[in-house]
Amino acid sequence: MPRLANIGCLATCANPAGQDDIGLIRDAALVWRGGTVRWAGPAEALPAEYEEEPAWDAAGGLVIPGLVDAHTHLAFGGWRAGEFSDRLRGRDYLEIAEAGGGIASTVRATRALDEEALFDRAKRFLTGMGSLGITTVEAKSGYGLDLESELRLLRVYRRLDEVGPTRMVATCLAAHVVPPEWAADREGYVRLVTEEILPAVAEEGLADFCDVFVEDSAFSADEARRICERGCELGLRPKLHVDQLSGGGGAELAASLGAVSADHLEYVSEAGIEALAAAGVVGVTLPLAGLYLNQAPPPARALIDGGVAVAVASDFNPGTAPSYHLPFAMTLACARQRMTPAEVLKGATRHAARALGREGEVGSLEPGSAADFAVIDAPDVEHWLYHLRPNACVAAARGGEIRHGVLR
Length: 408
What we know:
It contains 15 helices and 16 strands. The protein has 408 residues and is of the alpha/beta class. The strands form 2 sheets. Strands 1, 2, 3, 4, 5, 14, 15 and 16 form an 8-stranded mixed beta sheet that branches. Strand 2 and strand 3 form a beta hairpin. Helix 5 runs parallel beside helix 6 and helix 8 packs parallel to helix 9. The model has no long low-confidence stretch (mean pLDDT 96).
């Protein structure tokens, strides 16, 4: 039974309530067996039965639950660096999309890659994410937008979950945008999603969630409701991209559908905040997307004060968040969303796990949870997120097995 000793500061994130309660323990120890946490607490209170177990040395560092990235678009073809320059010159997201860029351009590049190419590319991304202390990743389809291509992306995620280095949670985002070949028949594409793609995904058990991008340039609230209700019939819980580019009652829609999360929320209304809190829907904020799109950040303080559990994720994608650096997104959440470091850590661990239906399994270090943890070269959470570095993660473990770095 291994144990982690000489922990300067341990953040267990064991309390399901309270955005800023990260369960801090100074001079701590952590014990696990069979990939599951058995005990976490002050080193001086270590039960005698664990004292002789082999110990790894955390060297006085900060130990946190393995980070949970609750919103990524991991598998895709190509990049969109040209759009970055276009936006800097004044072209907006919708203008680029209407000219054939944006999501449609990534769909073309993704459809051109076979499963092996997508797998190899995504695996490289995951290796980099694992080195940052990320141990669980939600990954969406949505760059296929036909039956064959959507299934190919989700099969890649299933394979990645089998080989690591991170745990994978798959989401079907066939309702990302209406692809060009269906532009003259929106209703026909919605039928394709509800009658062919979602049933095929459910039959193969390829995803846990069904997602829809609700926006003027994507899908209406009525279309999203039809798609999500069909997903629910098939056992796919709803998640929604809402209130990102405009305020359209997206949060209220997510609440009415019992969605596990409502993501983006830059334009969420007061009524939307109240609805999310009442329905227990997690609000997933995506600071990198706001930075790249030069948007005002979502009102995280109002969400937290209104009783919404707020998660922080990367939104890794080739267009509007071309970085999987979740710790950087966490620092942005502090600086731009006015969240404290403790609130942000809770948002990238326990609340992120809640947004994936995995609360208590990952995202915390408490008896019964997975022994997924990261050792950070920092004295505490405040210093880690304040002192921005390329990577402060010394080591990361999934199920008690070191997947990045070395502990002695």
